[in-house]
Amino acid sequence: MSEIPNHPVYSRNVLEMLTVANDYCMFMSKAETYSQKQLFDYLLKVGPLLYIKGSLLPDISVQNPDAAEKFLQEEEWESLFLALRKVLLKNDEFWFIDNSDLAENQAIKGSLSESFADIYQDLKDFLTLYQKSSLDAKENAVYELKQLFATHWGNRLVNAHKALHYLYYNLEEEEGKNRVSDFLV
């Protein structure tokens, strides 16, 4: 058995991120086949795991920034977005507070479909670039995903997860239902 090189791109945290990201992308690529309840069940469980794995990615020094690439086409993003919208129906939109400008905490309307399609895009690009055989590609994949976690998908994940939690656990009380699954279409 060959030894795994002693480089941060082969660290346990990166390999675990690859596993979770791959699972997420595979699940989301079949989003239109799931019920809303199945989608919520999965996203409520995988969301915290993605966040933990994203926060544990190592700092990487990129030797060749030219090896960075993007792979996901706009059509694939749009297809996933529309599939999620079709499953989520009226539960797609949510409100969140944008804390980027601390002087003005404004409520903003968000979309679960958009948030989870954006997360898919960042993770799919990571997976595709990491699968290239060069160390430069792997370095760029990990570096970029860590940067995007801090600036993009980590925040989207937190906002969307909070909305999912509310929909899944709190709306049953508002609707006077005994079971969450009765509310979700």
| Class of secondary structure makeup | mainly alpha
Strand order, largest beta sheet: 1-2
CATH H-tier superfamily? Protein of unknown function DUF5063
**Beta-strand residue percentage:** 5-15%
Low-confidence stretches: none
Task: Quickly name the level 1 CATH class.
Answer: Mainly Alpha
Distance between the termini: 50 Å
Name the average pLDDT. 88
Any overview of this molecule?
By secondary structure, this protein is mostly helical. The protein has one domain: Protein of unknown function DUF5063 (Four Helix Bundle (Hemerythrin (Met), subunit A), Up-down Bundle). The protein has six helices and two strands; from the N terminus they run αααββααα. The protein has helices at 12-28, 36-55, 74-88, 112-130, 135-175, 180-183; strands at residues 93-98, 106-111. Strands 1-2 form a two-stranded antiparallel ribbon. Strand 1 and strand 2 form a beta hairpin. The chain is globular. The model has no long low-confidence stretch (mean pLDDT 88).
Question: What characteristics describe this protein?
Answer:
Four Helix Bundle (Hemerythrin (Met), subunit A), 185 residues, two-stranded antiparallel sheet, 6 helices
Quick overview of this protein structure:
It is built from 6 helices and 2 strands, in the order αααββααα. It is mainly alpha-helical and 185 residues long. The protein has a two-stranded antiparallel ribbon with strand order 1-2.
